[in-house]
């Protein structure tokens, strides 16, 4: 038997203002996307923004439905839209922000497991690392690749 250890590295910034310019554009787009959420049941609005290798950004937001769980998370809304509208472009980054009562949440919201797996699939498809920004009002976490949020990614197919 051998003991193994998985380490996760990420950067923490105290605000969006500290981010490099391209990351800040993406984070700002995710914050804007929070306003696009349809969340009448949870009142938890989530926005996501995906950046392509050429710098283009698309947005998505969570969409709830009375027939739970028929809604969809912001991350998958943005990723599926990005893939469907630009199937031949590699996605290189995603930013996620959440808010309640018209205010950005203090700490970053983290993606659910299903969203992490979808991010992993598009990262694998592109053959390039997809960075992940988790945006809160008082801290922003940057992960260099999806693997840091989902160690041992399912990629056996």
Structure, described:
A hairpin with a 4-residue loop joins β6 and β7 (140-143). The chain is α+β, with helices and mostly antiparallel strands and 157 residues long. The chain has a single domain (11-148), classed as 3-Layer(aba) Sandwich (Cytidine Deaminase, domain 2). Helix content is 25%, strand content 24%.
What's the quick description here?
The chain is α+β, with helices and mostly antiparallel strands and 157 residues long.
- Average pLDDT figure: 95
Share of helical residues? 25-40%
Structure summary, number of beta strands: 7
**Unreliable residue runs:** none
SSE sequence, one letter per element: EHEEHEEHEE
What would you say the CATH architecture is? Answer: 3-Layer(aba) Sandwich
Shape: globular
By CATH's scheme, which homologous superfamily applies? Cytidine Deaminase, domain 2
Largest sheet: number of strands, sense, barrel closure: 7 strands, mixed
Summed up, the helix count is 3
The level-1 CATH class: Alpha Beta
How large is the share of residues in beta strands? 15-25%
* Fold-level CATH name: Cytidine Deaminase, domain 2
Rg value:
15 Å
Please give a handful of descriptors for the protein shown:
3 helices, 7-stranded mixed beta sheet, 157 residues, Cytidine Deaminase, domain 2, 7 strands, single chain, alpha+beta
List the helices and strands and how they pair.
Elements: E1 11-13, H1 21-34, E2 45-52, E3 57-61, H2 74-85, E4 91-100, E5 103-104, H3 113-126, E6 131-135, E7 140-143
Parallel strand pairs: 4-6
Antiparallel strand pairs: 1-7, 2-3, 2-4, 4-5, 6-7
Helix pairs in contact: 2-3
């Amino acid at each position: 038997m051998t003991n193994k250890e998985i380490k996760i590295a990420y950067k923490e910034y105290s605000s969006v203002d500290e981010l490099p310019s391209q990351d800040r554009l993406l984070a700002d787009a995710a914050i804007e996307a929070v306003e696009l959420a349809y969340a009448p049941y949870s009142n938890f609005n989530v926005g996501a923004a995906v950046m392509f290798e050429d710098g283009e950004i698309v947005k998505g937001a969570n969409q709830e439905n009375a027939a739970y769980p028929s809604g969809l998370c912001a991350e998958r809304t943005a990723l599926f839209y990005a893939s469907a509208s630009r199937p031949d472009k590699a996605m290189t980054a995603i930013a996620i922000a959440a808010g309640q009562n018209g205010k950005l949440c203090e700490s970053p919201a983290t993606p659910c497991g299903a969203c992490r797996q979808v991010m992993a699939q598009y990262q694998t498809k592109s053959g390039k690392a997809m960075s992940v920004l988790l945006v809160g009002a008082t801290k922003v976490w940057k992960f260099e690749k999806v693997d840091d949020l989902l160690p041992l990614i399912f990629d056996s197919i």
